[in-house]
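Researcher: If convenient, please comment on what follows.
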Amino acid sequence: MYFYRHGLEKSTIATWLQQKGYRNAYIGKYFNGYPRQAPKNYVPAGWDEWASPIYDSGYMGYKYTLNENGSFVEYGDRPEDYSADVYTSKAQEFINQAAKDKQPFFLYLAYFAPHQPAIPAPRHSKLFPDAFAPRTPSFNEADVEDKPKYIRELPLLNQAQKDWLDRLYQKRLRSLQAVDEGLVTLINTLKANEQLDNTYIIFTSDNGYHLGQHRLPPDKETAYEEDIHLPLYVRGPDVPMGETRDQIVSNLDLAPTFAELAGADTPNFIDGRSLIPLFRRHIPIPAQWRQVFFLQHRLNRQTIPIIPDYKGLRTSNCTYVQYATSEKELYNLRQDPDQLQNLANVIQPQVIKEYAKRMINLSSCRGKTCRERDLKPLPDCSITH
């Protein structure tokens, strides 16, 4: 609850858009522990409609308590209490009312799925019986001698562990079906209200997930691609269909993007940049764009294995990680997309120095300074023979 204790929720995307006349709704997961250290019925500033589970009660899909605009509503274990369906229904109601009132709206919808324990709706509980966790080249990696100690200490996955990963993967797929259905419902709701062609839909996630890569049990928090490389889809007016962009973007860019779409100003503390030049058809892509973004992780003793503190960088082709243990990783993603060959100890030392220097440089930036420091390219991380 750092944001609450330091009063930072007084200036968020919700307050910026509210000042522009937008009706705002937050539905679903806010953050872990909400509303710890705040009043139990606390609703952050700027949200006209609020429905979020309290005290981490939403992970199981059933038997949770929602703070609905300051009042508490208990949900049980009936099929209709399934949380993803409840969130979809509330989002649908919000869209209908905003359209009826002819008021511009902003909806932030945060489903829990496929977060563990990935409980599916009963109607989906038998789907995908033959699915298995992807056996990528890094799955149960055979040789981890060039990896950091926390990886080297992991044994190869045995068959029971592989079977468990497959069962979890099936559950994750099942739990996502209600999300898929919810998106269809909301798109149809927008269409019924003649708002679909006037609405931007941005779909992404806050983190990735590894399932057996590099021998790791299921979790997140590493700097490997499975955890940090996420989908980001945009649909809306003047957005070309079926195109992709290879520029580096970050979740730091979402708030300034939403703000610009709504015509709202952003405060000076914003580190990210608007993505509108990347997805609007008639706006030229800037000649200069982010060349690198900063990675950071603080030790979490609840993870297995325990991942040390680290900082790092991701460029379009390279990932560099420096651990508090002094261990380093460097991967050339063009040549080694599965991150099997750590180049940190074999590449020219000057390359490592350049990456480490930029990492320190970006770890201390704020606002506009970040958007300036991430423009300069870093040396290529290829090994030449």
